[in-house]
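Hi R.,

Here's the chain you asked about this morning:
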Amino acid sequence: MNLPACTDTEVLIIGAGPAGSATAIALRQAGVDVTLADRHDFPRDKACGDALMPDTLRALECLGLGDRVLEPALLAESMRVHAPDGTAVDVPGNFACLPRRKLDQSLLEAARDAGVRFLPRHRVRGPIQSGDHVGGARFSVAGVASPQCVGARLTVLATGAAVEPLQAFQLLLRRTPSALALRAYYKVPHSIARTHRHLKLSYDAAICPGYGWSFPGPDNVFNIGVGIFSQGAGRSAIPNLRGVWDTFIRSFPPAREIVSRGRPLAPPRGAPLRCNLEGAQLHRPGLLVVGEAAGTTFPFSGEGIGKAMESGLSAAQAIIKALRDDGSRTDTAGTRYEADFRALHAARYRGYRRAQSWLAWPAMCNLIARRAGPGSFASQRLEDMIQERGDPGDLFSIPGLCRTFLESRPPVPPDADRAPASETGPPPRSAIFPQRWGFCDSRRDLPVFDGVS
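And here is the predicted structure, written out as tokens:
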């Protein structure tokens, strides 16, 4: 029998996606000894919409990585949301698009530059346990015959939507995902790319209550995809995902033009989504769960990168406090992390879940969108929802509906989709990121990292 070869670390993080890397970087910035393990070599591909929403940009800025990570990204200053009938509402804000292959690699490089030890090709097999306390993890390593183990005072699970790690660590509450998504990359001529400069999120009637997207990335490459919820919004069974993607391409004119005029770079690739802080425990003694493993992806829109990173920052803050203030009582980290993260975000997840349920009534969504003229109540509430300045329930509720229809505003034309020919592309970086934002000091839901004494 081969006995595992063991090493020790202060904090072991399993999974080197945005949540795991953000946790690792924040801990290292506070002087914590960190080991980061992943089953893959990097760079590696990852099925995702690739849109970096305002919460992602804030998390990057909190880590001091905004300029570094976003250097190769395509920047945008608005998102265009399409109702089921095609009515388009422009939502201003700071957005970017960067393929996950590049984003995750950049974050991992930043973690390694900060002093995090990285263990590639480490597939987690289960916890090291002492009673109910998790004290690290066991791994199988590609090309290595004997099992490996890493002992740790605290362990962080950041393994995405995969069920097996959650089950191995006795955290799984629901096997089925909340949603499924499928995306493909298409490279188009510059003349086509410049007319589709907005990030577009569509609740097209042909796939509603699902959603689709067309996101412009660097080098005239577009991410075209769909998401289908497995529960709620009138969904009784999940249809064939590739069939839904094909339907979306036929029905949504911007996607149809990009696919017909573009060159596919790879076959469509799908992934499960775990949403709404459901499906798994967020901690057990010695272990914290972050990112999509904890269900941090938003329902309604499928946004996941930003909240995954924010969960990592919250977990890091709880770990730092446990190591600094609580001494040997490291089990307080998990309890504090879950309490803080839910206190900050649970109401927002409930609001997004309510918004998702409204997709079962496409006609109602159409009417709201048609009342969302510039400066209107509906337009402002949608902007607040995406910028996280307000509760989605402010719009997707009976009072919100009444306010929307009592207000007198001109309707939004349903076919306003293209940028004028004179507009040549996204704004310059200096127009969107003119200076360091300092969100860690101003936002109460992002921690300030001040070291471990």
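One quick note: The mean pLDDT is 87.

Cheers,
M.
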